[in-house]
Amino acid sequence: MGSGHTHPAPSAPPRVRRILVVTVVPLFVATVLAAALLWPRGGSPQTDGGADVPRYPGTVTRVVSEPCPSVPSVPEGTPRVGDGRCGTVDVRVDDGPTAGQQVRTPVPDGPGAPRVEVGDEVILVELADPTDPTTSNWNIAEHQRGTPMVWLAVVFAAAIVAFGRWRGLAALAGLAASFAILLTFVLPGISAGRSPLLVAVVGAALIMFVVLYLTHGVTAQTSVAVLGTLGSLVLTGVLATIATAATHLTGFGSEDATTLSMFQGDVDLHGLLLAGIIIGSLGVLDDVTVTQAATVTELANANPGLTRLQLYRAATRVGRAHIASTVNTIVLAYAGASLPLLLLLTADSRPIGQILTSEFLAQEIVRSAVATLGLIAAVPLTTGLAAVVTAAGRTNATASTDAPAPRPQPDRSEALAALSSPRTTGSDEPDRTRTAPPSQATDRWPKSNRSTDTAW
């Protein structure tokens, strides 16, 4: 079995390989041509994100806490802005024009402000005083996270390679290719004003081709998974378009989308919502399609006599179990990513019906429902294609030749003779009072000092 989780798939008949090549290659070429046409040129448009504030790494050398000054009483029910932390922090600048200099900053306070201690590595920002440009104020923006994240990435990659070996290394290469396509094509293409839905479909198809063939090899089984994934992606896009139009979703269902519209007003947020559904569905879809294609192949290897219909029914039962757990995975993944939103909605005093149909929550419900429908459609589509490809070219003769030989049935007379043979009288020695010849008794029953491991 090697490092993979399945046996190597047998080579498909030449006729089947030609059909797959004629089907998959034009789709790949069309995807590459569409990506070339949609590829952003001239760089992404510049957004008005404000002045670029200088940021320098530093190390905390001293923390002095002080009691906060008294403030006038505030009305009851007014939310607290900060934790009430006051004092100063001395930080040594580690890089930049003022490297080695000790600067003093106020203790970070406010929502999400970092808690610092001596020895912490932080990021400093230098803000010029509006009244006096010659002077500047220093503040701690956040902690440095580069080193912990590098170690986490190393452990992540080492675990995948240690468990998956060459297949794990290929999976890491596929992950790198996915991020490269997202960062160089999908995100810049949407920022450049291209149709988010079209860019997402082409980008997802490009990721699918690269990742699946790179991870699982150029085989008929992988080609079936590619076709099943591509068909399910198109169906998911159609369902997402219909569902968002029927529910009148605008795409302004999150604070991030609203902020993006302020800095880049020409982005189609409705299309961006559709693009997010497509990209989010891809990761689960290729898992299901690869599993279904591999299941059909393994069933055919285990029992070459199975027909296409039998392969389809058996693999579909596996797919039902997979879908039952994956649906819960999708819903929990979206719920985990939206926990602050869900907590905010639970504090809402509106009726539950209005909360469920609000833009914020309806967007997540539609996202989960559409992704699940596309996932369900992927099982019969991929399983049917895999059953046709796996069973193609087989005949009853080859099936009977490849099938294991049946166990020989014992002769009835031999069984009766064995039942009537002499038995022991309580010891290991055979009963000598029987009329059977000693030679037969010795051959039939093993001696007490003779091992029976070989016979068994």
From TrEMBL:
Q: Which residues cross the membrane?
A: 20-39, 146-163, 170-190, 196-214, 226-249, 269-285, 323-345, 365-389
Highest taxon of the lineage: Bacteria
- What are the Low complexity biased-composition ranges? 64-76
- An example Pfam family from this entry, by short name, is YibE_F
Q: Which InterPro entries match?
A: YibE_F
Asked if the keyword Signal belongs to this entry, the reply reads: no
Region named Disordered: 64-85, 93-112, 397-456
Q: Keyword annotations for this protein?
A: Membrane, Transmembrane, Transmembrane helix
Record field: compositional bias (Polar residues): 436-456
Q: Output this protein's name.
A: YibE/F family protein
